[in-house]
Amino acid sequence: MSWSAALVVLRTFLGIAYFTNGLAKLIGFSNFTIGPWTQYLINRPGAKGVLTYDVHNPHYGIPLARDFAHNFVLPNWDVIGWVVTAGELGVGIALLLGIFGRLGAFAGFLMALMLFIWDLGAGGWTYDYLYDVVLLGILMLTPNLPGLDRLMPWSRAYRGRRTVQAPATTSTG
């Protein structure tokens, strides 16, 4: 398996994780079962609960970020919860389809980094967020992975496939 194929598998896995968590926030479910396998997702109330727990513990997180979450994010959760939902859905779709893949990885990187900073020291989720930060950072810096970006007019690969006709020349005599 080539590096690009391995990175596409990684991008797809992270896309599924972000998309399903965004979907859980949109629809409101928090777990589903397929045979013996149960998956737990974080819906909007659950996300608010995790953030509330993190920011109300004075030993967790970086104080400035914790204060921002406590004084701005939580009081405005009715709006910000929907922004997070849209962000996770957008990141998930971008990563799954490979359209705006690097931008999607960057947005996911920022979301995971904020969660890591808010949760720093809590122990429960801190390492999970750090994994996302590192893996999305790698995807963010990796150009030209296969995906729908290659089919878009702004893509170098797309421009390289176009045939350009030479301008007609006329002779003047």
TrEMBL record:
Q: Where in the cell is it found?
A: Membrane
| Record-given protein name | DoxX family membrane protein
Any single Pfam family the record assigns to this protein? DoxX
Principal location listed in the UniProt entry: membrane
Q: How does it sit in the membrane?
A: Multi-pass membrane protein
Q: Where are the transmembrane segments?
A: 79-99, 106-127, 133-152
Tell me where on the tree of life, at the top rank, the source sits.
Bacteria
UniProt KW keywords: Membrane, Transmembrane, Transmembrane helix
Asked if the keyword Ribosomal protein belongs to this entry, the reply reads: no
Q: Which residues form the signal peptide?
A: none
Q: Say if the entry is tagged with keyword Transmembrane helix.
A: yes
- GO-annotated cellular components: membrane
